[in-house]
């Protein structure tokens, strides 16, 4: 995918945040925020950034207010399964070994199970479960492809990958916004839904 400019930042034109509500009478968001923060500050900050960007992207895709609300939650909770991943793996300052990668790849299913037990909306728990699926079918945990993957998961996949690339991780330095954006563009139609990638570049600013 070609872009007319190289993005250097993401503009989030939101007039509302979604951090102060309950998903249901049984499910309060605050404890999940606390769990993420206690487990790993980097993961918690990543969750907030991904949630904001996902909603901005959802607006460009003409999602309604109810959908945006659920999208924010889905994106914020996309890595909640990592609270069950060992710190030695989650914060390892080097590339993971294959056995460690297998453990890390369980976090979408772990997150899904945590949310399902709390009676969270299936739309939200499914988005968490499938956010590492790929448009071309090469993702996990089930190898879904194309529109078999829920739209929320396809949105989260793009902003999650971008944020991970553009920010420091335990095992590597950040790429920076321009290089991270180029990776996203190059993966349209393989890793990512091309329609979502196109909308992603509408929320970037030169």
Structure in words:
The chain has helices at 29-39, 41-60, 65-76, 87-90, 98-104, 107-117, 122-129, 151-166, 177-186, 194-200; strands at 9-10, 22-24, 27-28, 204-205. With 206 residues, the chain is mainly alpha-helical. It has one domain (19-205): Orthogonal Bundle (Hypothetical protein af1432). The chain is globular and about 40 Å long. The model is unreliable at 1-26 (pLDDT under 50).
Total helices: the number is 10
The fourth-level CATH homologous superfamily is Hypothetical protein af1432
Helicity, as a percent range: 40-55%
Order of helices and strands: EEEHHHHHHHHHHE
How many E strands? 4
Structural class: mainly alpha
Task: Write the CATH fold name.
Answer: Hypothetical protein af1432
In total, the number of domains comes to 1
Q: Extract low-pLDDT stretches.
A: 1-26
Span of the ends, CA to CA: 17 Å
Shape label: globular
* CATH architectural designation: Orthogonal Bundle
Major sheet details: 2 strands, antiparallel
Radius of gyration, in Å, reads 16 Å
Mean pLDDT: 86
Question: How are the strands of the largest sheet arranged?
Answer: 1-4
Query: What is the CATH C-level name?
Result: Mainly Alpha
Strand content: under 5%
Summarize the structure.
By secondary structure, this protein is mostly helical.
What is the element layout, followed by pairings?
Layout: E1 9-10, E2 22-24, E3 27-28, H1 29-39, H2 41-60, H3 65-76, H4 87-90, H5 98-104, H6 107-117, H7 122-129, H8 151-166, H9 177-186, H10 194-200, E4 204-205
Antiparallel strand pairs: 1-4, 2-3
Helix pairs in contact: 1-2, 2-3, 2-8, 3-7, 6-7, 7-8, 8-9
């Amino acid at each position: 995918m070609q872009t007319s400019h190289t993005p250097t930042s993401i503009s989030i034109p939101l007039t509302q945040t979604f951090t102060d509500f309950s998903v249901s009478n049984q499910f309060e968001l605050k404890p999940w925020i606390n769990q993420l923060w206690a487990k790993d500050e980097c993961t918690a900050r990543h969750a907030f950034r991904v949630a904001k960007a996902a909603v901005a992207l959802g607006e460009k895709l003409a999602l309604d207010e109810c959908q945006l609300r659920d999208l924010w939650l889905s994106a914020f909770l996309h890595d909640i399964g990592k609270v069950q991943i060992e710190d030695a793996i989650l914060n390892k300052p080097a590339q993971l070994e294959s056995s460690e990668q297998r453990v890390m790849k369980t976090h979408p299913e772990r997150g899904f199970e945590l949310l399902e037990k709390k009676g969270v909306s299936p739309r939200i728990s499914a988005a968490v479960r499938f956010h590492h699926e790929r448009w071309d079918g090469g993702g996990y945990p089930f190898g879904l492809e194309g529109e078999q993957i829920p739209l929320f998961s396809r949105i989260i996949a793009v902003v999650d990958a971008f944020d991970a690339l553009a920010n420091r991780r335990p095992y590597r330095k950040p790429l920076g916004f321009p290089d991270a954006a180029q990776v996203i563009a190059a993966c349209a139609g393989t890793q990512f839904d091309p329609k979502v990638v196109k909308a992603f570049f509408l929320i970037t600013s030169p």
